[in-house]
Amino acid sequence: xxxxxxxxxxxxxxxLGLLIxxxxxxxxxxxxxxxxxxASAIFxxxxxxxxxxxxxTAIYEFKNNxxxxxxxxxxxxxxxxxxxxxxxxxxx
Length: 92
Fold this sequence. Notes:
Elements: H1 10-27, H2 36-64, H3 66-90
Helix pairs in contact: 1-2, 1-3, 2-3
C-alpha cells in the first residue's frame, strides 16, 4: 500500500523559505551590515513573526502532509527558542 501525501501549499513553501533565508542571513552576519539601531529594532520581531507563521503553517500542513510539517515545526521550534534566548541575553 502506497501512502500519497497531498502537495504542500505554495504559502508553506514561502514560509519555509523565509525561515531558511533568515537563518542564512543571521549565520552569515547579515545584521552587521545594518546600522545598530535598525538591526536591534528588527531582529526579534522578524524572528517572532516567522515563528508564528511557521507554527500556523506546521499546524495546517500536519493535517495534509506530515512529511512536510515535521521539518517546518522543528525549524520553527528551534527559531522560537533561539529568539527567546537572544532576546533574554540582549536584555541583560
